Amino acid sequence: MNLITSYQPRREQFAAQMQSGIAIIPTAPEHLRNRDSSYPYRFDSYFYYLTGFQEPEAILVIVAEENNSDTRYILFCRDKDETREIWDGFRYGPEAAKEIFNFSEAYSITKLDELLPKLLANQTKLYFSLGQDSAWDLRVTGWLNQVRGQARTGATAPTEINDSHTLLDEMRLFKSAEELQIMRQSAAISTQAHKRAMQIVKPGMNECEIEAELLYLFRRQGAQAAAYTSIVAGGSNACVLHYIENNSQLKTGDLLLIDAGCELNGYAADITRTFPVNGKFSAVQKDIYQLVLSAQEAAIAAVKPGNNWDHPHQAALQVLVQGFIDFGLCKGSVDSVIDSQDYKRYYMHRTGHWLGLDVHDAGEYKQNGKWRSLQPGMTLTVEPGCYIRPAENVPQHFWDIGIRIEDDVVVTKDGNEILTIAAPKKITEIEEVMYE
Ligand code: GLY
Ligand code: MN
Ligand code: MN
Questions:
Q1: Alpha helices (runs of H) in 230-330, residue ranges in sequence order
Q2: Beta bridge partners of 77
Q3: Is residue 201 domain-shared with residue 85, that is, in the same domain?
Q4: Does residue 172 carry a pLDDT above 60?
Q5: Residue 366 CB: number of other CB atoms within 10 A?
Q6: For ligand 1, atom 5, which residue shows the shortest CA distance?
Q7: 306 C-alpha to ligand 3 centroid (Å)
Q8: 287 is annotated as an active-site residue
Q9: 48 shares a domain with 179
Q10: How many CA atoms lie within 13 A of 387 on its CB side?
Q11: Which positions ≥6 away from 260 have C-beta within 8 Å?
Q12: 3-class state of residue 233 by DSSP
């Protein structure tokens, strides 16, 4: 079994950018939920990106040499342990992990405090992400101080500390063909779950029943988990952007907003669909829905090389704001409403984010103070919305309408690929799926 085709080249690419020095990249800690019950374990995305190794209590150390062939890729991980394996499951142990995951060296995690000061000694540069986890910060500073304490032996500690995430964020931003293949599957599983929700929803059901169905569809199709807590928001709940209680009864005449996506082999999908609980959009719901859909289509059309990160957002805004004016929700010209930000009463978030191992994925949105240009392989969500809360100056028939439409989009050489294209979103498509 050799799981590893993409991880070693990534480690080499990272080490080449370090040029020389030592990188310390721990995985995520386990967290207790209460007493001795843990939250489901999820590895650290940076560590996983470079290793493919999913066990807790593991750390990657790279000692980069100018001459790349001497660079050391070292894994520290849990030892084999028959008793613990009976209770908690399989562990690779250093020996097997080294072979299977293709490290140049692997040691027991219990050797960390003994070996790390030795590995740090006489390196000038340290790559470590300070401030992510205070326990690791303390440990790393402890090792640095040990080396500093040996100054009279001639040992020197690194004098330059760089954030390892800066280089890795840039690598993670551009998805490889392999990553995109997983993301297509993750999107397909999530799409099925949204479709199923459209098919089963009925007035009188509770939001939690729909959430359960989504999770069932995720797991049944092989996804490990939801990539984030699902939002299943009927009626006015859809106007609470991060609504996750998911415990209200769904009423005829209301819309249902579902923002849910699975995580498959580490990669997130992030889809939002909004549809009528009773299967038929009312006239006013149709008006606002069509407006958000037109904004989303305009934004997706702006996802292409040559445009920058902000272009899809601006494209969505132009359409939304014109609609807000046409419906009497805002007053003035499109430019004046954008300048005054009056539109934020109904559209208060941006139009997307990078997507990948993390639902809000790694990568800078600006470079040198300018929105960065879109390039093939970048993967993002496009998710305009409209949320109309009751207010004196808003006609009552618009109240409590909350709509968002969110797709996952990859920038390609010629434009884009919509990973979530199969999730119904045209009014006629949705009504058809719900009627079937
Ligand atoms: N589901 C989180 C988001 O849409 O950003
Ligand atoms: Mn999103
Ligand atoms: Mn979302």
A1: 283-301, 310-326
A2: 108
A3: no
A4: yes
A5: 11
A6: 360
A7: 26
A8: no
A9: no
A10: 21
A11: 190, 193, 194, 211, 214, 226, 230, 231, 232, 271
A12: strand
Pairing of strands 125-127, 160-162: parallel
| Residue in 230, 406, 408 to alter for ligand 1 test, most ligand atoms within 8 A of Cβ | 406
Active site residue 360: yes
Which pLDDT does position 248 carry in this prediction? Answer: 98
pLDDT (average), residues 269-298: 99
Q: Based on the domain organization, do 37 and 91 belong to the same domain?
A: yes
| Per-residue model confidence as pLDDT tens digits over 116-127 | 999 999 999 999
Q: DSSP character for 416? A: E
Residue type, 38: S
105-108, strands of its sheet edge to edge: 105-108, 72-77, 59-64, 21-26, 125-127, 160-162
Predicted model pTM: 0.97
Domain limits for position 201: 174-435
Task: Give me the amino acid identity at 219.
Answer: R
Q: What residue ranges line ligand 1, CB within 6 angstroms?
A: 228, 259, 270, 353, 359, 383, 406
DSSP 23-64: EEEE-PPP-EEETTEEPPP---HHHHHHH----SS-EEEEEE
Judge if 61 and 198 occupy the same domain.
no
Closest CA to 118 of 79, 74, 175, 81: 74
pLDDT per residue over 8-19, tens digit each? 999 999 999 999
Domains: count for the chain = 2
Rounded Cα distance between 431 and 436, Å, is 9
What atom in ligand 1 is closest to the CA of residue 259?
1
